[in-house]
Amino acid sequence: MRLVIATCTVDYAGRLAAHLPRAKRLLLVKADGSISIHADGGAYKPLNWMSPPCTLRMEEGRWVVTNAKGETLTIELHEVHGELSHELGPDPGLQKDGVEAHLQELLAANPHVLEPGLALLRREHPTDIGPVDLLCRDAEGRTVAVEIKRRGEIDGVEQLARYLERLELDGRLRPVRGILAAQLVKPQARTLAAARGIAWVEVDYDELRGVGTGRLTLF
């Protein structure tokens, strides 16, 4: 992990063009090759970023990041105020809370409750940006990525969309579609999921455990 605080300008060129004017920012370079640019606000979301696999070329006063699609992120370093590099080592990954972990276990054993004919291929299927909760195959033989949350919110949709983008790079899995499964899916998440072509399912936890008479609803 490398952290650099610098006054910089940033230009992205690819599917569209974007520009960040001169300002003091945090540049974060990770061992997986990704780079992200952060301001002192906006919570955890970067102002711009480049996901791996990508190549970082460091020149005098300038960084140029290029990915396999030919997109580029050019960072002009006007002044470097501080820098820190540290090896973090392997990460054990996010430990889900009891209900979320149990939901994943129950849905892995009964994927058909999410969609008739759905069959499990693998739990915690790895991608270069993190594991997909469930990788499944639908009745028509298509690959389906399932992300499981207690509460389905915008962040969950964004996370699943990123996984789908990475999975689509694997010719053995294409085409890949997604399902967000949660006990409750917020209205904003439903709207974003529809815009991204992602299905969502509200899961009755008690019913999955064999208690109650709630229903599963697929949209």
UniProtKB/TrEMBL annotation:
Cellular localization per UniProt: Cytoplasm
User: Looking at its record, which EC class is this enzyme?
Assistant: hydrolase
- Outline the extent of the Endonuclease NucS N-terminal PH-like domain: 2-91
Domain Endonuclease NucS C-terminal: from-to ranges: 99-219
Q: What is its EC number?
A: 3.1.-.-
GO MF annotation list: endonuclease activity
Q: Which UniProt keywords apply?
A: Cytoplasm, DNA-binding, Endonuclease, Hydrolase, Nuclease
- Predominant location: cytoplasm
Q: Family membership, please give it.
A: Belongs to the NucS endonuclease family.
PANTHER family per record: ENDONUCLEASE NUCS
Function of this protein? Cleaves both 3' and 5' ssDNA extremities of branched DNA structures.
**Alphabetical list of HAMAP family matching this protein:** NucS
Descriptive protein name? Endonuclease NucS
